[in-house]
Write a structure and sequence with these properties.
By secondary structure, this protein is of the alpha/beta class. The chain contains twelve helices and six strands. Helices cover 39% and strands 13% of the residues. The protein has a six-stranded mixed β-sheet with strand order 1-4-3-2-5-6. One of its GO terms (cellular component) is ribonuclease H2 complex.
Length: 304
């Protein structure tokens, strides 16, 4: 599984795929879809489509308690069965997840997951796969999701079930592939931000993991927040920002200006922060200009 395309720009989503076996274009095939990394506050959420010839007996149900090494070994076996098994992977970046959930017209995680799965099924059809059955691990109410997919893909038998990875071998195999992709991406994450020597001991990435919480506190910038590795739309990240980051007062035409309000609350306004970086009256010569400005070659202007 070559993740180079995603690693080159991990700020956006990316689709990767294996070679599609020729038999999948000439014989009836089944397809399984599962996702990994839905809950963590750190890292990606990969969606995996795995397709094979209709006989699922070549696969088996795999336990969720497998170790990372065991998952890697199983994926290697699946990847070697190129004559009758193929896969496609849609990696949702943390940045994509957060900006989708926080945009003006909210695009929630369930809708994002549904659309990603739909895109993967369409990819298989566009690639000439002779698709007969689709098995999907549900996101939200299973009956509604199944009806939605059945209407979009008439003529294909669609089955959506909770915990489908424990019921259908093709979904179980897709789950293994998705987890392997997340394991690799999180382990070898390429930080776009200049954070120096980054501590990669960030635990599981789940909000209740003490190591994850400690990492979030360590790498939170009080003004600019988190690196793009963090899903900043998660309540865990937002709560830490609210309690630990610099207070910001936004101007309101019906109230006093942000500058005056900040002074009244004994806080520095955003304007004073910018003027300080340019050498204003609060300028601290020992403080370096933040990378946000240097990377974009930004400078403050006193006159226009």
């Amino acid at each position: 599984m070559d993740l180079g395309s995603f690693e080159a720009d991990n700020s956006s989503s990316c689709r990767l795929a294996s070679h599609i076996p020729e038999v999948c274009r000439t014989e009836d095939c089944c397809l399984g879809i599962d996702e990994a990394g839905r809950g963590p506050v750190l890292g990606t959420q990969p969606h995996e489509l795995l397709l094979c010839i209709s006989n699922q007996q070549v696969l088996q149900n795999y336990s969720k308690t497998l170790t990372e090494t065991e998952r890697e070994n199983l994926f290697q076996k699946l990847d070697e069965a190129k004559s009758y098994i193929g896969w496609a992977l849609q990696i949702l970046s943390p940045n994509t997840i957060s900006t989708s959930m926080l945009q003006r017209t909210k695009y929630n995680l369930n809708a994002l997951s549904h659309d990603t799965a739909i895109g993967l099924v369409q990819y298989a059809l566009d690639s000439g796969v002779q698709l007969k059955e689709v098995f999907v691990d549900t996101v939200g109410p299973a009956e509604k999701y199944e009806e939605k997919l059945s209407q979009l893909f008439p003529g294909i038998e669609v089955t959506v079930r909770p915990k489908a990875d424990s019921l259908f071998p093709v979904v179980s195999a897709a789950s293994i592939c998705a987890k392997v992709a997340r394991d690799r991406v999180v382990k070898d994450w390429k930080f776009a931000e200049d954070l120096g020597e980054v501590d990669t001991d960030y635990g599981s990435g789940y909000p209740n993991d003490p190591k994850t919480k400690a990492w979030l506190l360590k790498y939170m910038d009080p003004v600019f927040g988190y690196p793009q590795f963090v899903r900043f739309s998660w309540s865990t990240a937002q709560t830490l920002m609210d309690s630990k980051a610099a207070t910001v007062h936004w101007d309101d035409d019906d109230e006093e200006t942000g500058e005056k309000a900040a002074q009244r609350q004994n806080n520095r306004s955003m304007l004073s922060y910018f003027s300080a970086s340019a050498g204003g009256k609060d300028h601290n010569p020992t403080r370096k200009t933040h990378r946000f400005f240097t990377e974009r070659r930004l400078k403050s202007l006193n006159t226009l």
